[in-house]
Amino acid sequence: MAAITLRELTKVYPNGVRALDALDLEIADGEFFALLGPSGCGKTTLLRTIAGLELSSGGSVRIGDRDVTSLPPGQRDVAMVFQDYALFPHMTVRDNIAYPLRIKKVGKADRQDKAARTADELGLSALLDRRPGQLSGGQQQRVALARAMACHPQVFLLDEPLSNLDARLRLEARTFLKRLQRELGVTTVFVTHDQAEALALADRIAVMEGGRIRQVGTPTEVFRRPANTFVAGFIGSTPMNLVPARVRGDELAVAAVRLPVPEDVRGELTDGEQVVYGVRPEYLDYSPEPASGALTGQVVVVENLGSFSLVSLDVPAEEPDAGATTSVQVVVPEGREPEPGDTGWVTPRPGRSLIYRDGELIGSTAEAAVPAPRTGVGADA
Ligand code: ADP
Ligand code: MG
Fold first, then answer.
1. How much distance in Å is there from the Cα of 160 to the middle of ligand 2?
2. Which residue's alpha carbon is nearest to atom 7 within ligand 1?
3. SS3 string of the chain?
4. pTM, two decimal places
5. What is the mean pLDDT of each run of 10 residues along the chain (381 residues)?
6. Ligand 2 centre from 20 Cα, in Å?
7. CATH number at residue 316
C-alpha cells in the first residue's frame, strides 16, 4: 500500500492535445479515490500516466517513497483494470488471473495456487476452467479485478470499471467493489464520468475539467459546497439552480425576491454587483401558497422520479430585466406535485444557499443569515 503524489503533472499528446495541465494531487495511503469528470477531460490519461502506460511530458509521479516518473509500468507495482476488462479470450479464467504472475516469473504451482485463492475471494472458484466468452459481464469484471489483485499491488487503478454493466448489475458490482476495497485496504484510484457512482463509492473525489482539477473533496464537501459553478453543475443527480442575482445594499436581489447577503461575504460585495445565487433543487421547499422570502413563478414541467418529482418553474427576473425568466427546479415529495400552469413558491432551506462570483464560490448562507421570514407576505407593500 502506498500514497500517490502528483506534482505539476502534464501530458501533451503528439497531436498537441494538452490532456493534463500541471496537475497537483495527493492521494492518501489506503484511500478509495475517484477521478470524476465529463468525457475527454483527461481521466484515462491521468490513470495511464500513473500506471506508466503513458509517459508524462512534465512534472512527477511518486508512489509511496519512490519517484516512478520514468519507470516502466512493470516496476511501478500498480495494477490496472481497463474499461473493457481486456481479458485474453483464448485463456481460461485461471490462466487469465495467473497471467501477470507468469510475466513476473512466478513458478507455475505457486501462481496457480495464488490464482485459485484470489478467485475464491471473488466468488469465481466454480468458473476457473471457463473462457471469458462463457461468462456474464459481471463475472468478466470480477475476473479482471482478480487478475489485478493476484499480484498484490500497492495501487489499484480502475478505469470506469462498472460502465459496461447494465443498471442493476452495476449497483451490485458497486457495493461489491466498495466492500472489496475496504477489506483489502489498497490505495485505489477509479475513474468515472458518473457523479452518483463517485459520490457513492469514494472517500474523496477530484472533479476534472479540461485536464485540470476543479475541486478535491469528500463526497459531502463537493455536494454541499461546490467550489465553482462547473462542479455545482456536474455534481448531483439534478444540477444545482444557478440564478443570476444582484447586490442591493445589504440584500441580494434574486429574481424578484430580496434575500439578506450572507454575513461572510458582506464586506466583499459592492452595491449593484452581479453574482450567482446557487441552491440545489433538494434544498428548496415548494408551496402552492405565498411564502415570505420565496421565489415565485409558474410551473412549466413536472417530472415524476418515483418517490419525488422534479418541478421546473419559470421565475420572472428583477426589474431591469423585466420580461426575462429564469428556470428554477425544485424537488417535491410524492403526493404534493403541482400541475403545469400552477403558480408556486419556493423557499431556500436554511444554510444551503451559495454565492458565486465569476464562477467561483465566495460565500454561503450561514444558518444565522438565512432569510428570516420578514413580516409576512404583502406586509411591506
Ligand atoms: P477521459 O478518459 O476523461 O474521457 P482521455 O484521457 O481519454 O479523457 O482524453 C483526454 C484528451 O486527450 C481528449 O481530448 C482526447 O481526445 C485526447 N487523447 C486521448 N488519448 C489520446 C492519444 N493517444 N492521442 C492524442 N490525443 C489523445
Ligand atoms: Mg476515459
1. 7
2. 44
3. CCCEEEEEEEEECCCCCEEEEEEEEEECCCCEEEEECCCCCCHHHHHHHHHCCCCCCEEEEEECCEECCCCCHHHCCEEEECCCCCCCCCCCHHHHHHHHHHHCCCCHHHHHHHHHHHHHHCCCHHHCCCCHHHCCHHHHHHHHHHHHHCCCCCEEEEECCCCCCCHHHHHHHHHHHHHHHHHHCCEEEEEECCHHHHHHHCCEEEEEECCEEEEEECHHHHHHCCCEHHHHHHCCCCCCEEEEEEEECCEEEECCEEEECCHHHHCCCCCCCEEEEEECHHHEEEECCCCCCCEEEEEEEEEECCCEEEEEEEEECCHHHCCCEEEEEEEEECCCCCCCCCEEEEEECCCCCEEEECCEEEEECCHHHCCCCCCCCCCCC
4. 0.87
5. 94 97 97 97 97 96 96 91 86 91 86 87 88 88 87 90 79 85 91 94 97 97 94 92 90 86 80 92 95 92 94 83 83 94 92 91 62 37 30
6. 13
7. 2.40.50.140
